[in-house]
Please model this.
Amino acid sequence: MRPSQCRSGHGIGSDRHTDIKRNLGLANGTLQFHLGVLEREGIIRSQNQGTRKVFYPKGVPVPENGGNLHEVQLRILRAVRELPGIMTGDVAGALGISRQHALWHLRILVTKNLVRLERHGFRLQCFPPATKDGTPTPAEGLESAATHVQDS
Model:
């Protein structure tokens, strides 16, 4: 597996089993055999992420967050921390992705209580999550909140 064949977006130079299978058009057994050989030879390495296994070519660093948050999600967290109340369309524009893609990742972050969305008419704004007493979380708390989710 060449780094150029790794293009699913699960990390720079990484791919999941199903993505590799689809991209190369291989059957499960054939792919599993060859991935095993490549791993034994030290050409690739793998990391379990929940129920999925992600493969990395030799020399490609594993994401610091262990892969629990997608790179786009980390970038969204930074944007929301720097500009509380940023519109979802502005998040998408800043990251160079579609609004639908940004909203998909934002909803995941909402379920992990890392971002709060508020609708104002047709506008959807992104904020850091509120604390238990309803006050907004300080911006510097987002980094530790993201780390807490990754550790659990």
